[in-house]
Amino acid sequence: MHAILCILLTACLHLTFSQECRQIITVCDESATGTGTRKGDKGDVGAPGKSGNKGSKGDVGPIGLQGASCSLGSLGSELLDKLAELESRIAPSSCSTSARSGRVVLSSGEEAVCDEGWTVFQRRLDGSVDFNQNWNMYRRGFGNMNGEFWLGLDRIYGLTKYKGCRLKIDLWDFEDNYAYAEYSSFSVADELNGFRLHVSGYNGTAGDSMGENGASNDGMQFSTKDRDQDVWSGGNCAVHTNGPFGGWWFRECGYSLLNSGWGRSTGTWSNIIWYHWKGDKEALKATTMKLRCD
Q1: What is the pLDDT of residue 16?
Q2: For residue 33, what pLDDT is reported?
Q3: Cβ–Cβ under 8 Å, residues 102 and 123
Q4: CA dist., res. 276 & res. 49, Å (int)
Q5: Where does the sequence pass through the membrane (predicted)?
Q6: What pLDDT digit, counting tens, does each position of 242-258 carry?
Q7: Element (H, E) at 85
Q8: Over the Cα atoms of the chain, what is R_g?
């Protein structure tokens, strides 16, 4: 029975939607009420002949009704239980309902990178992806979910639109020292409002280089090399002379540069910076930005 269960579960894994697998199991069980034919019972033994002679063979009984042709019985119930467990693991509705970390296919069919219940929307690792992209690329998203990527402002807006969300930023320097910044309130407006950022409620070990300090990114619209929405009188922060700084919620130009060019700093305000942890001259090696909503 366990071998059959494994075969059926394996088959379900190859279905596009697990609901189809449920339908197959249900139809199979309901077919147990069907009728048909089966082998009849053995006929009666004939009457004995004369003494010493073998009696005549009795007639074969009539063909009976067919039993359940497909019913899985207790196996079907076990299969449905296993399938429910499988669905909860392979198709969570969001990262917050996923027990796994890494690249996950959600029940909506969208892919996401989950990290212990957080949805990752930005990751820098090794400079393999160019973050000096234009407005449309930052809006749609780019990169490789197995490595460096930006999820896309449209999806970040959609994720934070109706829910109370938090932001967590993980930071590593080139000596693999770690620090983090977490914000209790995080959301991004739609494109008509320039994907305006709301971020507040800092807690962490890296210092507040993004929220409610004098150079806050809170309340700022998103800027890219082809769309200047910062308030710096000297030009566009995304194409700063020390940059490129990549797309970001610049004010003028702020203390956080997480989409800047990758690499060790070659001067002041170069490469990936989180000012309140490492200052403006020491670049960071890796970053992860992720959100979690109620």
Answers
A1: 40
A2: 46
A3: no
A4: 110
A5: none
A6: 878 999 999 988 899 99
A7: helix 74-90
A8: 32
* Cα(115)–Cα(113) distance, integer angstroms: 7
**CA distances to 28, 46, 79, 84, 89 from 13, in Å:** 18, 56, 12, 12, 12
Distance CA 240, CA 7 (A): 59
Percent of the chain with pLDDT over 70: 68
**What DSSP assignment string belongs to 10-49?**
HHHHTSSSHHHHHHHHHHHHHGGG---EEPPPPPPPPPP-
Q: Say what the pLDDT of residue 241 is.
A: 77
User: Distance between CA 126 and CA 263 in Å, rounded?
Assistant: 8
At position 264, the amino acid (one-letter code) is: R
d(CA 215, CA 212): 8
Task: Report helix, strand or coil for 158.
Answer: helix
100: closest CA among 112, 108, 110?
A: 112
Q: How many CA atoms lie within 13 A of 144 on its CB side?
A: 9
Q: Which residues in the chain come in under a pLDDT of 50?
A: 13-20, 27, 30-38, 67-69, 214
Contact 212, 200 (CB under 8 A): yes
Q: Is the dihedral of CA 229, 232, 235, 239 positive or negative?
A: negative
Cα(235)–Cα(229) distance, integer angstroms: 10
Q: If phi over 0 gives left and psi between -120 and 50 gives alpha, with beta otherwise, what is residue 228?
A: beta
> What letter does residue 112 receive in the DSSP assignment?
E
